[in-house]
Amino acid sequence: MSFLRSRYESIRSDVEIADIGFFSLRVIALAGTVAWLLATHASRETVTTFLRISLFFVAYGLLIYALLFYRFDRKREIYRLSLLFDLVFVGLLIVRSGGFASSFFIGFYLLTALHAFYYGYRSGLATAAACAVAYLVAGLRVSTVEPVDFLLRVSFLFLIAVPIGLLSGILRKDKEQIESLNRELVQSIETMRRLQGKLVEAEKLSALGRFTAEVAHEIRNPLTAIGGFAKRLEKRLPGGTRERDDAGIIVTEVARLERILKDTLTFSREAKTRLAYVDMNDIIARAGRDFADACREKGISLEIRPDTSLPFCLADREHVRQALANLVMNAIDAMGEGGRLTISTRTACDNGVRSIRIDVADTGPGIAADLVERIFEPFYSTKNMGHGTGLGLSICKKIMEEHRGSVQVITTPGKGSVFSLHFPDDSKPAVRNEVPVR
Question: How many domains does the chain have?
Fold first, then answer.
C-alpha cells in the first residue's frame, strides 16, 4: 500500500493538462458509444458488436494506464502506443456505424487535436495523416468513397493540427520561460535572504565593534598605569622574594591584556587603508628578519622564497605586514618545537583572474576539516585558554577584504597547512629600487 500511495503522489505532482485531456477523451469515447447505442435503438446483434468493441476499448485502456502508473516518466512513448489502439477503435466504430457517413469520424478530430497539442504541429500533421488513412480503410469496407466529402472531412484534420500544434509550441515556450523566471526568482529571494542575514550580522558586529572599542579605550589607560607601577615594583623588590615574583606575574598578565586590547581595537577599527604600490618581496623579507629569533629558539627552519619577477602590488604596507605577522605567529605556535616554515610570493591565475599571493606554509599538525570553516570567526581559537585572542585570523580576513582580496587555507591533518593572502593584480612592473625596504 505504501508503494501504491507513493506512486500516486509522485504521478499527481507530474500530471499536466494534456494528461487530463487524454483521459477525458477516453471517457468521452466510451460515453459517446453508449449514447449512440441508446439513441439509435440498435438491434441485438449491433449492441453485441458494440459491446465487444467497448470491451476492447476498456481492455487496452486499462493496459495503457497500468503502464502509465508504473512508468509515468515514459508517458510520451506510451501515448504514442495508445494512438495505434485508438485508431483501431475509432475505425471499428466507423465500420459498424455506416462507413463514410458515420458520426464517429469526430473521434479522429479529437485524436488529432489532442496529439497536436501534446506533441506539436509536426506530430499533429502525422496524426492527421494516420487518421485519414484509417478513415479511408474503414469507410471502404462499408461503402464507396465520395471524393469531395472525404477530402473536405480530411482537410479539416490538417486544419486542426497546424494551429493547435503552433499554439501548443507557443504555450510550451511560455511555460518554460515562466518556470525559468520562477527559478530565478526563487534564487533571487534566497540570495536576498542571505544578504539580509549578512547585513543584520554586519550591523550587529559594527555595533559590537563600536562598543568594544569604547570599552577598550577606557580600560587601556588604567591598564597602562598598572603595568608601569608593576614594572617599577619588580625592579625595586629584591630578587628571589615572593613579592617580586607576584610583581612579575602582574607585568606578564598586563602585557597579555594589552595584546588582547590591541587585537580588539584593530579588529573593531574602521577601514583606513593607505594604498600604494609596494614590493611584497620586501614585506616577506622583513617578516623573515622579525621572526628569525623566534624560529631559532624553537628549532624551526625558516625559509624565505621571493618571486623575483613579482610585480608591485597596490596595498597598505603596514596592514599587509600585520596580516602576515598573524599568519607567521600562528604557524610558529602550531608547530611547537621543530619543523619548517616557508614564506613565499608568487603570481597565480584562477578562472581567468590574476592575483598576487603570499603563502605561509608550515609542517604542523594541520587543521581538522570540521574546524576549517570556523577558524576565521572572531574570538574563535584552537589554542589553549589564555593563549591568543582568537582575533588573529579574523583580522587577516578583514584586512584582505579591505584590499578586495581574500585569505585562504589548504590544510592536511598531520602534514601541515598553507595560508595564502590573495591580492588582486592591480600591478605595475617592478623596479626593485623604487620601494626601499623599511
Answer: 2
Q: pTM of the predicted model, to two decimals?
A: 0.46
321 or 201, greater pLDDT: 321
Spatial CA neighbour of 345 closest among 331, 330, 360:
360
Q: Please report, for residues 259, 285, 302, the alpha-carbon distance to residue 320 in angstroms, rounded to integers and kept in the order given.
A: 19, 13, 19
Q: Which residues lie closer than 8 Å to 367 by C-beta, 6 or more apart?
A: 375, 382, 409, 411, 413, 417
**Residue where a domain stops, chosen among 145, 165, 199:** 145
User: Which residue, 145, 179, 206, sits at the end of a domain?
Assistant: 145
Question: Tens digit of pLDDT for each residue in 141-179?
Answer: 887 888 888 888 889 889 888 888 888 888 888 888 888
Could you tell me if residue 136 is inside a domain? yes
